[in-house]
Amino acid sequence: MNGFRGLFVTGTDTGVGKTIVTGALVAALRAEKRNIGVWKPVQSGALLGSGETDAERLLQYTGIDERAEHVAPFTFQAPLTPMLAAKQDGVEITLQEIISAGQPLANRYESILIEGAGGVAVPLTEDSLVVDLISELRTPALIVARTGLGTINHTLLTVSYLQQHGIKVTGFILNDGESDEIYNDSSITTNAELIERYCGIPFLGRFPRLMDEMNTEMLIQVIREKIQLTPIRQALTVQSMEEE
Ligand SMILES: Nc1ncnc2c1ncn2[C@@H]1O[C@H](COP(=O)(O)OP(=O)(O)OP(=O)(O)O)[C@@H](O)[C@H]1O
Ligand SMILES: [Mg+2]
Fold this sequence. Notes:
CATH superfamily: P-loop containing nucleotide triphosphate hydrolases
Number of strands: 10
Oligomer: single chain
Catalytic activity: (7R,8S)-8-amino-7-(carboxyamino)nonanoate + ATP = (4R,5S)-dethiobiotin + ADP + phosphate + H(+); (7R,8S)-7,8-diammoniononanoate + CO2 + ATP = (4R,5S)-dethiobiotin + ADP + phosphate + 3 H(+)
Organism: Paenibacillus taichungensis
Radius of gyration: 17 Å
Bound molecules: adenosine-5'-triphosphate, magnesium ion
Strand order of the largest sheet: 2-5-1-8-9-10
Active site: 40
Binding site for substrate: 44
Subunit structure: Homodimer.
Number of helices: 10
């Protein structure tokens, strides 16, 4: 039985801000005395110890006392989709191995936020995509998307794909990211509303561009001011469907 209680944070693309948003959400939920953990099932692009992997960043943002290799049991160096990055290291992983590796971590927390790799249709193993992992875990999903032009298309496609696979979508967060592009982008005033209108999934807030060094206190403050946590708290307390 896959006894996962949690929320899967996916994105419309790589680099949209899943790690920073996941870290900030977990920090804010833990500040409410909830024992929420974080899991990055597979990561690629850097090795543990570099300080640059998502697992290390998640631990830094949240202040969670875990070993990075427990947060991310599978790390591959090549900046490629996990399936190919693993192959370059001569490793072949299965979906069941990925899930089994996360179980001890999940058991230590009342609920976990799980950061995907890239977007929903990213190859994870020889025969599975990220969406298949979400399906197997039976958690709902939260989408992180860019704020600016193009986000309606990417977000609606992501919602539709998740729903086709029977995955419940809790909401979407638009992240300003680190580029200056949004400052001359008039679409940002209407994107959230249009996405809501065409798919009916709730907009949970806009995560601002952060200029200063990102520390836990500051990330908690940003979440409290900008993001609706109620639907996320609710999603985290629902047992995974298999446990019900
Ligand atoms: N709101 C923001 N303010 C400032 N910098 C940001 C913001 N959002 C993202 N960034 C920066 O943009 C880069 C990409 O963000 P992040 O790593 O969180 O994306 P991701 O979706 O997790 O990517 P991946 O697919 O590699 O996991 C990082 O360097 C991050 O620090
Ligand atoms: Mg990331």
